[in-house]
């Protein structure tokens, strides 16, 4: 039945259509009443009102049961939103697990249209990151399978379940799910089938699967890497060398070769092998292995540096097959390494920063934070270094810690501004910078504002304003590391305004305080002044000083003849195969020499491990010029998956499709 309060509320609602003054229990009564007597207006009002009351997990847990029972779409959606907002911690709540993971829970959500493939895919990804082997992960993936309707959804769900079962060492079930994915058309799941067979001691069977894969399809690096797991001796090494040749970004071949060299007591060669990949990819497992080799060499300083760097990337990293926490290794190695004061660390950081040694800089900052964990300035520097290493997730973590540890409001506003900027909220970031400046004029606030404003096509008036902001920043107290960056940025704006002498002064001043990257800006100034030899020499200075110098070789190639440029770009590719410009340059040269197929091969080489928008667009353009419209369309479609609004690719796509449409007619 319904209470007296409920009847009174129903009567008041019939006159006012409002629920504002009623407590939640009365509104719940009205919701039941509305359902019983099919009163859509009252039900909708109750649903909306209750949805607005959901603020935390406890309230959501209480109200979602009512929502599911009474088919209140908005109320259930609001509760789900709270659960999702509190991930991954909410997934440890047994009641939340019951709603998401049980068959009954999924069916109840489905009855209201809330049990989508996208939802369960998202939840399963979170669960896999949290604990891949947990029963919760398995149950979520089973629900994902139940939600899968389209063929691609089934392929993905089956494959993911296979991966988790493999991780749980349930190899028979893993093989079953991988086979299901293969039958649904997921070719990559053949690797899972092979792994499962290998784990069940069917090594030759696994080898045959991957061998057939290589024979039947265009071979890629990962295929040869996979096959290497199922063979030995020279055959294994040959596969790993081929894997590196086809995809130099795969870490396993480098690590295997490094271990083989260590077994031959060639420690230096082993470290050189790992340095090849650490030069362009901050890989925690490669840092761990290099630390292990350094310990073998009794280079405890080097080992400590690498462990500190990997702890910055992954604070909970477990070393040596999950036997020891990396933090504990730091404690063990610290007495064996040189002890430095905080002042010594600042000097060391300055040296590493100047020599463009980002991993070394990370290690120093980690050491400094061990003595001063609440130092927001150091956390901010850490985030900048991580961004330079292309570790966005770790960078954002450091930036949030900087914000959380900041004791000064104007400083906290700056960090909030950077968080907003890095997540694509430029206008909000500018507002934070302005609010910070209104409270206290600081280098970082002016720098943030200038940086955010410069991130657009600047007209002369805007450029003048950015210049003023950077000049204001330089008047504020800061250290040489940041002032060097500000001078470098100021020089860049002057170049864009065609004020080359002022730009040269900025770059020279930056170099005077050892901001090594300013060599590149100064080289650009020389180039614009038609002093090509001076530009080349300036880039040579950068190459000599910088530890990570792939970009310097790439840039220097612009200031020399074709033959020397080819040499520099080959070195750039060798040092950092992820840089796309060298491939594009070489492909363009080949096209100019009417070697169309070689040009296509050059682009295909890098696209196989880095499907970059510009590379796909260029290959599509080459195909189009060769009259291969179908291939051009295919590459355009791939490029548009990366950026659906890319104007040049859209134009090329429509152009390439026209002949095809005519042919079909």
From TrEMBL:
TPR repeat copies, ranges: 484-517
InterPro entries: ETO1-like, TPR-like_helical_dom_sf, TPR_rpt
One BP annotation, GO: negative regulation of ethylene-activated signaling pathway
PROSITE patterns reported in the protein's UniProt record: TPR
SUPFAM superfamilies: TPR-like (SSF48452)
Coiled-coil features, chain-numbered ranges: 529-556
Keywords on record: Coiled coil, TPR repeat
A Pfam family recorded for this sequence: TPR_8
Protein name: Ethylene-overproduction protein 1
Organism: Noccaea caerulescens (Alpine penny-cress)
């Amino acid at each position: 039945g319904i209470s007296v309060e409920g009847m009174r509320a129903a009567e008041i609602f019939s006159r006012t259509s409002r629920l504002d003054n009623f407590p939640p229990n009365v509104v719940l009564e009205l919701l039941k009443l509305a359902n019983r007597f099919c009163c859509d207006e009252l039900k909708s009002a109750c649903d909306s009102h209750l949805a607005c009351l959901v603020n935390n997990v406890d309230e959501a847990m209480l109200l979602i049961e009512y929502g599911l029972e009474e088919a209140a779409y908005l109320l259930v959606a609001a509760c789900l939103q709270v659960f999702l907002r509190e991930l991954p911690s909410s997934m440890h709540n047994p009641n939340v697990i019951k709603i998401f993971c049980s068959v009954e829970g999924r069916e109840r959500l489905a009855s209201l249209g809330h049990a989508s493939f996208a939802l369960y895919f998202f939840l399963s990804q979170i669960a896999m990151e949290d604990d891949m082997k947990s029963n919760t992960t398995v149950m979520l993936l089973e629900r994902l399978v139940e939600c899968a309707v389209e063929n691609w959804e089934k392929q993905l769900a089956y494959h993911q379940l296979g991966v988790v079962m493999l991780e749980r060492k349930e190899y028979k079930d893993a093989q079953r799910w991988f086979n299901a994915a293969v039958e649904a058309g997921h070719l990559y799941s053949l690797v899972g089938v092979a792994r499962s067979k290998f784990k069940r001691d069917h090594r030759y069977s696994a080898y045959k699967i991957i061998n057939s894969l290589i024979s039947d399809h265009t071979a890629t690096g990962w295929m040869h890497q996979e096959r290497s797991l199922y063979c030995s001796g020279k055959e294994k090494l040959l596969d790993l060398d081929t894997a590196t040749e086809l995809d130099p970004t795969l870490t396993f071949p480098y690590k295997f070769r490094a271990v083989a060299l260590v077994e031959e007591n060639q420690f230096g060669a082993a470290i050189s092998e790992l340095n090849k990949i650490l030069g362009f990819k901050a890989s925690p497992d490669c840092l761990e292995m290099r630390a292990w080799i350094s310990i073998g060499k009794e280079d405890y300083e080097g080992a400590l540096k690498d462990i500190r760097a990997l702890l910055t990337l992954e604070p909970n990293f477990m070393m040596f097959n999950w036997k020891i926490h990396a933090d504990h290794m730091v404690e063990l190695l610290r007495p064996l390494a040189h002890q430095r004061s905080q002042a010594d660390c600042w000097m060391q950081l300055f040296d590493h920063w100047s020599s463009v040694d980002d991993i070394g800089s990370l290690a120093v900052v980690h050491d400094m934070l061990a003595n001063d964990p609440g130092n927001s300035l150091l956390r901010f520097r850490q985030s900048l270094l991580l961004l330079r290493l292309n570790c966005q997730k770790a960078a954002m973590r450091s930036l949030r810690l900087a914000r959380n540890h900041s004791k000064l409001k104007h400083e906290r506003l700056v960090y909030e501004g950077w968080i907003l900027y890095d997540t694509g909220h430029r206008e909000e970031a500018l507002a934070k910078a302005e609010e910070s400046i209104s409270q206290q004029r600081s280098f970082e606030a002016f720098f943030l504002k200038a940086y955010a404003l410069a991130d657009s096509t600047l007209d002369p008036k805007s450029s003048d304003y950015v210049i003023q902001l950077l000049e204001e920043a330089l008047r504020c107290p800061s250290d040489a590391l940041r002032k060097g960056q500000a001078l470098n940025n100021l020089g860049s704006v002057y170049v864009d305004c065609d004020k080359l002498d002022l730009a040269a002064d900025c770059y020279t001043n930056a170099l005077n305080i050892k901001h090594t990257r300013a060599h590149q800006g100064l080289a650009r100034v020389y180039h614009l002044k038609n002093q090509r030899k001076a530009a080349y020499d300036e880039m040579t200075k950068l190459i000599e000083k910088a530890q990570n110098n792939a970009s310097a070789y790439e840039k220097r190639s612009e200031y020399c003849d074709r033959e020397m440029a080819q040499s520099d770009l080959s070195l750039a590719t060798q040092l950092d195969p992820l840089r796309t410009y060298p491939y594009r340059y070489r492909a363009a040269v080949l096209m100019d020499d009417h070697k169309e197929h070689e040009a296509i091969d050059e682009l295909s080489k890098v696209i196989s491990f880095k499907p970059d928008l510009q590379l796909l667009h260029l290959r599509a353009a080459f195909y189009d010029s060769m009259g291969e419209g179908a291939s051009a369309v295919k590459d355009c479609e791939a490029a548009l998956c990366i950026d659906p609004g890319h104007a040049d690719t859209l134009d090329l796509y429509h152009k390439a499709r026209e002949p095809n449409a005519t042919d079909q007619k």
